[in-house]
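Why do we bother with holo predictions? Because pocket geometry can differ from the apo form. Keep that in mind while you read this record for oxa(dethia)-CoA.
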Amino acid sequence: MTNIRSIIRGCGAFLPERAVTNHELARRVDTSHEWIVQRTGIEQRHIAAEHETTSILGIKAAEAALANAGLTAKDIDLVVCATSTPDYTFPSTATLIQTGLGMTHGAAFDLQAVCTGFVYGVATADNFLRSGSHRRALVIGAETFSRILDWNDRTTCVLFGDGAGAIVLEAGSGAGTSEDRGVLSTQLRSDGRYRDKLYVDGGPGSTRTTGVLKMEGREVFRFAVGMVADVVEAAFAATGTTVEDLDWFVPHQANKRIITASAEKLGIPLEKVVITVDRHGNTSAASIPLALATAQADGRIKQGDLVMIEAIGGGFTWGSALLRW
Ligand code: UT7
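The structure, written out:
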């Protein structure tokens, strides 16, 4: 029996030109390069220029993914953009990206699951492709978190950065085994009881303002490692694979300590872990596709590799996807 699989055709990313070092931030708030590196692993992050909105970053990442796939926007019939920092309350950033790519066909919509947004996006597009309703999807994670930070709050402003990444998924056929190329399993979770641990204190329906990010970092940290292990183990169980089969672990890039503790708990050797948080900071929904594009471009992730992505974010939301590249 053949199964429809969402096969990864291409991957690309875009970062704003301006890189801001910890030393630069230490001139604005009471912090230090040493503290930030020791507690988070972050050394720099990219910050969008005034004219660079989330859709502009998303368009550039989508163009890079299409070029990598050897396709054009004409070939795409679904655009899913995961973001918590849309250009506007509406229209969606996905429709702005669709227009920016020169598309007047297909469907485009935004999806909001904060840092887990890209994993939710992959799961959503995978279900559209496997249902037969669409054939090729762009899944984009794009963020300008610099616009929702309180630049006087040292507990949050040193952690985040801007950027975008994208993949092209194409409906293909497989044998229904874990040897197939494509999306093998997606595991999504959420629990809104934790809304106060990580949130933005504004919005159109409550304050009519954008608001700024608030986080009880220590509490989020405490939950993160357990949540990661839950969804990663569920993806292995659903596909009959084990940690030994894994080629690359590409986690959400929030904090190097969370990444290494999660890898250790799961028994994944550090040589198989893709880490970009040192250069990118936490770019929320963009962090995983940025890391995927980095590791594909430098030759680490190759066709046929088994790749686990996972994230946890505000809500809480969390999830994983197991991919055969
Ligand atoms: O992407 C969504 C998911 N988000 C995350 O995964 C973030 C999870 N949390 C974390 O990554 C970490 O909790 C943080 C990096 C946010 C904080 O690290 P921590 O080791 O948990 O530090 P802490 O919050 O316990 O703070 C330790 C101390 C505090 O001072 P006292 O109370 O011990 O005197 C903070 O006030 O460090 C202080 N501090 C800072 N010092 C210098 C907090 N921020 C800074 C700073 N520079 N930027």
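Residues 31, 35, 39-40, 115, 154-155, 158, 217-218, 220-221, 224, 254-255, 258, 282, 312-313 surround oxa(dethia)-CoA (CB under 6 Å).
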